[in-house]
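Much of what follows relies on a compact textual record of a protein's fold. A complete example follows; check for yourself that the lines match position by position.
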Amino acid sequence: MRWMWIDAITEYEPDKRLVAVKNVSLSEEHLHDHFAATEDRHAMPLMPNSLIVEGMAQTAGVLVGSINAFREKVVLAKIVRATIERDVLPGQSIRYDASIERLDDAGASTAGTIERLDHRHGEWEQIGRIDLIFSHIDNNMSGLEFPEHNFVFGENFRTLLRSAGMDSFCE
């Protein structure tokens, strides 16, 4: 993964569930354009919903990939449902909780919830659900050739796994 939209893995139940967090900071460039100040209003920086969906895709993708020790190339195939009911602002945190619903040779489906933490109040609040389908592309793209190495599995990704105590997947 070139762009990481999760900062840490906080819980991992092999083959079942993975929880990750993202701390949203005003120092992130993408927030300054979403939404920039105009003549009529002040700037209203917030985390774009598309990047929240990507954060869940990375969380659930780590879970799906970990089942076979990242030997298969797992890609997002479909967003089944994405409901985000509240904005996430700078200074808040996002928690992604992903669970496996179905798994077979072709891929997996996951169910996930999104919560935000406003550090001023100190309580996690559920703000949405995202259900996804992943494909094991080597098993589904008949006739197409892909590189032998797992092209999703970069150094930033290894660092994320090591910091979560998932070192065995990095060898």
In short: Residues 49-66 form the longest helix (18 residues). The chain has three helices and six strands. The beta strands are 8-13, 17-23, 74-84, 92-104, 107-118, 124-136.
